[in-house]
Q: What sequence folds into this?
């Protein structure tokens, strides 16, 4: 049953109603809809009008006045209350005083004994335990000590290598290379030669002017002082050649850098507060109209450069001196070095090659007539070029060449960093640093001018010398192999082990100064710590960071501490005894990319860290005691940590 309710307005109540029928077939789908519509009765048009409201505080007048009184002079005198002689005698002879002295006599005696036994003003809480082992946080910082730059030779250039002088206090050398794009790095022949390539020597006592300059045939990517004779320097060029310098004639100038600073009376203490802009302005004012400095340092020409034909085909990215207690021959046999002079080098290059270089004796054997012509050309060298290595210039060839390839012989590896177990991995500068007051010049000749070549028949073959080495490639791979030549095999070396941990080029591959079998590798956005002999992988691997890691360096005094440079100008300080998942401290050093880190021990109380960037600025930082002084049993604790990590891998 369907009911319908029909309604109408009240005023129409009672009016007649007429209903009609409608055929349903006349309507589509036989359906009539009563659609809703808007009732205009309730639609009110809103009008807009402007209104303004302003709140103002009520203004009222108020005033205050201090009542001034007429000043008057007044004085007050205090004096102690004194007893008369009769009162003093009565007080001293009273029984009350005797009872008091008798009661406190024993306690006073104990207090006096304690004062004699111990220092009552000593703070035992501060001396309770070691700061580094306690729960509190010691002051960790890198204090700015000095800054160096040069508008002529370091402008728009990247500092590629930094080395401290092994024996002279406050002398540091830097090399720079041009900032090249990827296309320019591929085509190095298109590089502009308008800017001279040099290695600059700086001194703490004259931060404005370089003390010495080494002439370079090309931009220097890396260089090293000889551990046996610091006057001999070897460097690797961007064109693949190896260069030798002899600075023995300028050793006295470097030693006298404190007293003779070209008339400049700027001390290291004053330069701490000086800004880089002031230093640049001073340098600009000291440059003459012709663009030449009025205090131009001596220029040392290179003594020898390797043969282009037998050198690397790509830039020399790493160079090391071999130890002075052994040397190799062309048959890859290791003999004892009776002369105890570092006469061999090892270099690597992304051109898939590792070269061993030998510095032969100065006395050359009889040569054919074409070679004699070449020898006459060598003898006609300029007089300011040292004659130490003139017999090697442009005819120096590598002793051993190693080409790295995979087991399938089709895969080649481009080494950019190399680490040998037997290398001099750091200098013990704390024992060799020359006193600031000692300015005597040794009169002995350089040992390289007195070398002779003994016959290998009379030399002892060393069997316990490790020939294994680690290599970091430009693709981010860590390669572990052996450079000892096998019988009836060519110079190509198959890779024993390969690890892919880093996603970008390896920029650091360094052994720990305290553990010869512990290696730090840095590349891309992470770093890893390896233990030689463990084939399962690294014993410690960091997580990927937000920025790129550009360089790494072990601490020379603390076994568990190392420094990591970043592309945002920060330095991360890692302490393995505190945290292994994040750096224990980080500090901003520069506004640009950190390119090199080099520590140095000046004394037991003074430790420095040299940090360079890609803007040509070298920062010298003083390391705080918390980062330079090892804690109790730190060496054993770090060793235990490494051993535990090795057990976890197994």
A:
């Amino acid at each position: 049953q369907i009911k319908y309710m029909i309604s109408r307005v009240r005023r129409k109540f009672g009016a007649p109603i007429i209903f009609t029928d409608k055929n349903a077939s006349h309507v589509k789908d036989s359906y009539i809809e009563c659609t809703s519509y808007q009732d205009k009765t309730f639609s009110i048009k809103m009008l807009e009008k402007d209104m303004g409201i302003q709140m103002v505080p009520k203004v009222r007048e108020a005033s205050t006045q201090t009542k001034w009184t007429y000043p008057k002079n007044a004085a007050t005198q205090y004096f102690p209350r004194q007893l008369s002689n009769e009162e003093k005698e009565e007080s001293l002879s009273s029984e009350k005083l005797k009872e008091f002295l008798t009661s406190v006599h024993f306690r006073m005696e104990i207090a006096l004994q304690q004062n004699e036994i111990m220092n009552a003003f000593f703070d035992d809480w501060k001396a309770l335990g070691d700061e580094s082992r306690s729960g509190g946080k010691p002051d960790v910082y890198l204090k700015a000590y000095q800054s160096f730059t040069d508008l002529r030779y370091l402008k728009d250039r990247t500092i590629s290598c930094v080395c401290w002088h092994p024996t002279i206090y406050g002398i540091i050398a830097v090399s720079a290379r041009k900032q090249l794009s990827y296309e320019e790095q591929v085509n190095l022949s298109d590089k502009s030669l308008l800017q001279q390539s040099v290695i600059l020597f700086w001194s703490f006592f004259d931060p404005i002017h370089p003390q010495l300059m080494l002439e370079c045939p090309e931009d220097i990517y890396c260089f090293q002082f000889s551990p046996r004779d610091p006057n001999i320097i070897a460097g690797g060029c961007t064109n693949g050649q190896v260069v030798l310098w002899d600075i023995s004639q300028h050793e006295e100038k470097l030693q006298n850098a404190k007293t003779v600073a070209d008339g400049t009376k700027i001390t290291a203490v004053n330069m701490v507060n000086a800004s880089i802009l002031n230093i640049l302005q001073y340098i600009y004012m000291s440059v003459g109209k012709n663009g030449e400095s009025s205090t131009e340092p001596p220029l040392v020409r290179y003594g020898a450069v390797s043969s282009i034909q037998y050198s690397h085909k790509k830039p020399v990215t790493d160079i090391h001196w071999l130890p002075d207690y052994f040397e190799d021959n062309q048959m890859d046999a290791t003999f004892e070095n009776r002369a105890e002079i570092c006469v061999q080098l090892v270099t690597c290059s992304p051109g898939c090659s590792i070269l061993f270089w030998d510095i032969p004796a100065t006395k050359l054997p009889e040569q054919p007539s074409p070679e004699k012509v070449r020898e006459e050309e060598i003898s006609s060298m300029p007089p300011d070029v040292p004659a130490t290595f003139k017999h090697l210039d442009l005819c120096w060839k590598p002793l051993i060449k190693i080409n790295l390839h995979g087991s399938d012989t089709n895969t080649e590896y481009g080494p950019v960093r190399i680490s040998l177990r037997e290398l001099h991995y750091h200098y013990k500068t704390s024992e060799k640093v020359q006193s600031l007051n000692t300015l005597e010049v040794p009169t002995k000749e350089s040992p390289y001018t007195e070398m002779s070549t003994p016959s290998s028949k009379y030399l002892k073959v060393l069997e316990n010398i490790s020939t294994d080495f680690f290599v970091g490639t430009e693709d981010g791979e860590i390669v572990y192999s052996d450079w000892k030549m096998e019988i009836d095999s060519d110079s190509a070396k198959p890779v024993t082990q390969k690890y892919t941990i880093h996603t970008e080029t390896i920029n650091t591959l360094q052994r720990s100064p305290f553990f010869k079998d512990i290696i730090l590798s840095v590349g891309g956005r992470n770093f890893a710590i390896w233990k030689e002999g463990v084939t399962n992988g690294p014993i410690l691997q960091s997580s990927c960071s937000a920025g790129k890691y550009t360089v790494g360096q072990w601490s020379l005094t603390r076994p568990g501490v190392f420094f990591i440079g970043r592309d945002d100008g920060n330095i991360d300080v890692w302490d393995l005894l505190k945290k292994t998942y994040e750096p224990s401290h980080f500090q901003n050093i520069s506004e640009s990319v950190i390119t090199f880190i080099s520590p140095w021990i000046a004394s037991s109380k003074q430790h420095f860290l040299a940090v360079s960037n890609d803007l040509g600025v070298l920062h010298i930082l003083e390391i705080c005691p918390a980062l330079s002084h090892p804690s109790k049993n730190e060496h054993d604790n770090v060793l235990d940590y490494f051993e535990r990590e090795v057990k976890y891998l197994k």
